[in-house]
C-alpha cells in the first residue's frame, strides 16, 4: 500500500487520502487463544503484571485505561496509530467528503438555530486533525454565509504525539504555538484560515459557551466494564496473571458483586454486557452544556442500541489483535451502546439516532458531492480513490451499516424554537435536522 500525498486545496478539488486497507475498527475478534510465543513482554505488560501482583486483578475498564492512556506508556500517548503505517483507518482519513458533509451539518444547525454571532467547534479525540481540517475548509468555502460569525476551535486530546500532528495539519506555521504543559489549555495557536485553536486534555476545561461538539470514533476507546450473568447473579470480568504461564494475562470472573454492576439495567435480558461509565459522564457534561448555552453534539461511531454482548477487541497493523497480548502495542475498543448515551441525555436535551452512516451521509448529499468532485477531477487515480472511498463509507457490508450517527440538541430545536416559527409544517421538527432527514437549507 502507498500513502498518496495530499494535492491541491481549491474549493472543488479532490484531496488524495491514504490507500484504503480492507479492515476498519468495526470488525470483531474474541481473545485469549494466542500461543504464548506470540506474547512479547512489552513495558506495558511488565507494568500491569507488577500492578496485579501488588494490588490484585484489575477490571477491563482499568486495563483499557492503563493500556490506552497511561501518561508514560499508553498506546495513544506517543504514537500515530492512524493510516497506512498505523493500526486502523477512519472515515475522515478515507475520504475528504466525510468531513465536508459534517461541516455542512454544523452550518445547517447554526443556520437553523438563528445564526449566532459566535460559536466554538469542539472535537473530542481529533486523531490527526484531518476531520476538523476538512470541516474548516468548508467553513472557509462558505465564508460569505459565516462572515459575521466569530468561530474558535477547541480540541480535547490526551495524546502528546497526536496533538503535535494536529497542530501540523491545522495551524499556520508563521504563528508560533503557545505551549503550557501544566495548564488545562496545554497548547494554543491559529489555524491556517486564521481561527483561534486551543488544546485541552478534558472536556471539562473547554470554555462553556455556544458550541458544536463532535466525537468521531472517540466513545469506542473509553474504558468499559464487562459483566457475565452467572447462576449467582452478575459477575464482573477481571484481568489476572495466568497461573500456568508467567507473563501472560487471562480473563477471570470476580467471586462476588462489584460496584460497576450499578450501571446494568434492572430488566437486562442479555447474559453478557459492557458498560461505559466514562461515556455517561461525558454525555451528561455535553447535555448540560447544550441545555444551558445551546448548540449541538454529533457523535459518530460503531455501536448498537443496547443489544450486543462481547464487543471488546484489539487492532494492530490493520489486523484484529488479541486484546490481552502485547498490551500497549495495539488499539483497544468496544462498541458504543447508544441506548446508554440516550438515557444519560434524557431530560436535559433531545437526542436523535442512532442512524446508519449510509443513511446519514445520503441525507447530507454525499452523491451530489461525489459527482462534483468526479466531474472536476481528470486524474484517474484520484477518481478511483474517490469511488473506493465512497464505497468504503457507504457500502452496508463495510462502514455504511456498522457506523452510526447520533445527535444531542436543545429541546427547543425539536419543538420549534423562536427561530423556527415560520416553519408551518405538519412534520415533526426532528425532520428538519439535516442528516436525520434530507438536507434542506432554511
Ligand atoms: N476522531 C479521529 C481519531 C479517532 S482515534 C478519527 O476519526 O480519525 C481516538 C482519538 O481519541 C485519538 O485522537 C486519541 O488520542 C483520543 N483519545 C483517546 N482517549 C481519550 C481521552 N480519554 N480523552 C481525550 N482524547 C482521547
UniProtKB/TrEMBL annotation:
<comment type="subunit">
    <text>Interacts with NDUFS2.</text>
</comment>
<dbReference type="Pfam" id="PF02636">
    <property type="entry name" value="Methyltransf_28"/>
</dbReference>
<keyword id="KW-0489">Methyltransferase</keyword>
<keyword id="KW-0496">Mitochondrion</keyword>
<dbReference type="GO" id="GO:0032981">
    <property type="term" value="P:mitochondrial respiratory chain complex I assembly"/>
</dbReference>
<dbReference type="GO" id="GO:0019899">
    <property type="term" value="F:enzyme binding"/>
</dbReference>
<dbReference type="GO" id="GO:0032259">
    <property type="term" value="P:methylation"/>
</dbReference>
<keyword id="KW-0808">Transferase</keyword>
<protein>
    <recommendedName>
        <fullName>Protein arginine methyltransferase NDUFAF7</fullName>
        <ecNumber>2.1.1.320</ecNumber>
    </recommendedName>
</protein>
<dbReference type="GO" id="GO:0035243">
    <property type="term" value="F:protein-arginine omega-N symmetric methyltransferase activity"/>
</dbReference>
<dbReference type="InterPro" id="IPR038375">
    <property type="entry name" value="NDUFAF7_sf"/>
</dbReference>
<comment type="similarity">
    <text>Belongs to the NDUFAF7 family.</text>
</comment>
<comment type="function">
    <text>Arginine methyltransferase involved in the assembly or stability of mitochondrial NADH:ubiquinone oxidoreductase complex (complex I). Acts by mediating symmetric dimethylation of 'Arg-118' of NDUFS2 after it assembles into the complex I, stabilizing the early intermediate complex.</text>
</comment>
<keyword id="KW-0809">Transit peptide</keyword>
<dbReference type="GO" id="GO:0005739">
    <property type="term" value="C:mitochondrion"/>
</dbReference>
<dbReference type="InterPro" id="IPR029063">
    <property type="entry name" value="SAM-dependent_MTases_sf"/>
</dbReference>
<dbReference type="InterPro" id="IPR003788">
    <property type="entry name" value="NDUFAF7"/>
</dbReference>
Amino acid at each position: 500500500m502507498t500513502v498518496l500525498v495530499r494535492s491541491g486545496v481549491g474549493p472543488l478539488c479532490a484531496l488524495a487520502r491514504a490507500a484504503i486497507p480492507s479492515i476498519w475498527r468495526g470488525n470483531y475478534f474474541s481473545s485469549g487463544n494466542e500461543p504464548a510465543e506470540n506474547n512479547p513482554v512489552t513495558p506495558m505488560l511488565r507494568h500491569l503484571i507488577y500492578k496485579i501482583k501488588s494490588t490484585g486483578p484489575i477490571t477491563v475498564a482499568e486495563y483499557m485505561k492503563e493500556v490506552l492512556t497511561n501518561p508514560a506508556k499508553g498506546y495513544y500517548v506517543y504514537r500515530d496509530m492512524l493510516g497506512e503505517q498505523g493500526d486502523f483507518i477512519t472515515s475522515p482519513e478515507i475520504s475528504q467528503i466525510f468531513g465536508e458533509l459534517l461541516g455542512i451539518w454544523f452550518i445547517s444547525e447554526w443556520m437553523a438555530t438563528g445564526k449566532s454571532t459566535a460559536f466554538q467547534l469542539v472535537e473530542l479525540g481529533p486523531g490527526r486533525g484531518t476531520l476538523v481540517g476538512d470541516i474548516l475548509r468548508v467553513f472557509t468555502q462558505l465564508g460569505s454565509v459565516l462572515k459575521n460569525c466569530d468561530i474558535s476551535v477547541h480540541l480535547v486530546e490526551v495524546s502528546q504525539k497526536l496533538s503535535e500532528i494536529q497542530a501540523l495539519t491545522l495551524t499556520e506555521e508563521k504563528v508560533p504555538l503557545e505551549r503550557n504543559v501544566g495548564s488545562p489549555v496545554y497548547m494554543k495557536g491559529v489555524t491556517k484560515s486564521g481561527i483561534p485553536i486551543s488544546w485541552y486534555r478534558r472536556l471539562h476545561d473547554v470554555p462553556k459557551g455556544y458550541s458544536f461538539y463532535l466525537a468521531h470514533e472517540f466513545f469506542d476507546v473509553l474504558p468499559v466494564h464487562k459483566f457475565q450473568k452467572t447462576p449467582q447473579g452478575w459477575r464482573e470480568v477481571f484481568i489476572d496473571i495466568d497461573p500456568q504461564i508467567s507473563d501472560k494475562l487471562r480473563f477471570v470472573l470476580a467471586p462476588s458483586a462489584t460496584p460497576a454492576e450499578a450501571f446494568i439495567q434492572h430488566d437486562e435480558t442479555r447474559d453478557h454486557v459492557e458498560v461505559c461509565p466514562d461515556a455517561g459522564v461525558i454525555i451528561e457534561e455535553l447535555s448540560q452544556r447544550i441545555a444551558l448555552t445551546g448548540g449541538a453534539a454529533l457523535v459518530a461511531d460503531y455501536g448498537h442500541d443496547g443489544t450486543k454482548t462481547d464487543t471488546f477487541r484489539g487492532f494492530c497493523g490493520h489486523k484484529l489483535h488479541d486484546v490481552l497480548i502485547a498490551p500497549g502495542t495495539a488499539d483497544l475498543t468496544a462498541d458504543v451502546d447508544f441506548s446508554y448515551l440516550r438515557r444519560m441525555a434524557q431530560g436535559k436535551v433531545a437526542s436523535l439516532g442512532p442512524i446508519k452512516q449510509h443513511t446519514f451521509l445520503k441525507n447530507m448529499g454525499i452523491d451530489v458531492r461525489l459527482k462534483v468532485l468526479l466531474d472536476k477531477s481528470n486524474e484517474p487515480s484520484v477518481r478511483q480513490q474517490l469511488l473506493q472511498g465512497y464505497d468504503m463509507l457507504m457500502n452496508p457490508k463495510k462502514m455504511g451499516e456498522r457506523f452510526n450517527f447520533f445527535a444531542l440538541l436543545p429541546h427547543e430545536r425539536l419543538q420549534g424554537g423562536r427561530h423556527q416559527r415560520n416553519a408551518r409544517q405538519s412534520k415533526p421538527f426532528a425532520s428538519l435536522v439535516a442528516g436525520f432527514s434530507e438536507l434542506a437549507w432554511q
